[in-house]
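User: Can you predict the 3D structure for this chain?
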Amino acid sequence: MLPLLLISTLPAFTLLLVAPASKPGKLARELGLLALLLARELLRHSAAAAAGRRERGVARMSPAKAKPAAAAAAALAAPEDTPAAAGLPLLDLPELALDRVLEELSPASLAAMACVCAALRDRCPSDALWERHLRRKWGRVLGAAARKEWEAELAARGTRAGPERPGRRRSWVDSLACAWPFSWIGCRWLKSDAAPALAPATVAAEPAPAPAPTAPAADTVAAWYRALECGEFWFPAQVYNREDGHVGFVLSCYDAHLRYDRRTDTFTARYPPHGRKPAKEEDGVQWSRIRAPPVSTPPHDLHVSDCLEELRPGDHFEIQWRKNKDFPYGWWYGVVGHQESCNANEHLCRCHEEDMIVLEFQHYAPGSRWRQTTVGRKDHREKGDETDGFYGGIRKLQSKEEITTWRRFWPVDVLN
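Assistant: Here is the predicted structure, written as structure tokens:
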């Protein structure tokens, strides 16, 4: 049995030695899980073979000794045939303890754990487990609009789906999908025929001769996580400094649809068309340049400004701006300034009582036509023209985190 055990685990430990050292902890956990599964199966088969040899030896004994020996052999073999012994010790834990163990697993380990047995296959795709992973990795860039589009995508796919196809026979690819860790086979994880583009990474089937299971329902959080991770779902978000390096978009944030690329850990952004200009795509967008939309206002609609009465000099804000009325709005960062007649003394300043608000964009040089503009405090709507563009709704920045994020994109040189 020892040579067989070494043969079954040697490839896993060989991969551990030659694998890149970028994420050794994660790789070691996955290889360890694979080795334990192989060792467990080998031990079970070895125990069954030993029980069979023992029974054959009993049959060759004398009739006087055969009965007690046969009873002893049956007692030894019984645990292998009982469901309690065949089950995993993990499943003997209380419900709360088992849930706590599963909560500590990474997405890759949780997907691999779903392949261990039928009980874990039903438990591991739980929304409660995957919601934590979704918030941890994607929560900062996913907003309510992304969830609505995902639900609309599911509804559209459900409408287009035809009658259910008969279940296909399980092939070696199914077995490989359950034996190999999620992070290695990635987006090639086997999908069911009934939901070709939405099957989650937790597709799992037991090595037992039971019929192959269908993929978890596409409306689960696990399915959404997999669609995001594998770049199968374009989600709405906003990108700071679009077309990174373009001086015309410094300290702005524009709506886009994004798709994740696991190989580079970056995104592809697809911006809506600007008038007659076609939609543009930008590759290599970093996580730090993406945010969930803070308001639900569509990019072509005017945001209702509800903060004008409270704006004072020194307050940080975002304001909608677009070059002409055929273009979508972008959000631009600025600071409330003082009136020309004010000496900027905080004890004598009365700018907050004026009907006009001075908006400054201090990354532009003094004297630049983009440096400053004014809006009405009481009746502000969209203002501007085809030369200087159109200024729309205003949103006051309430948190230091938002202000710090904007300041990270401050240009090295002052713009003209």
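DSSP finds 13 helices and eleven strands in the chain. The radius of gyration is 31 Å.
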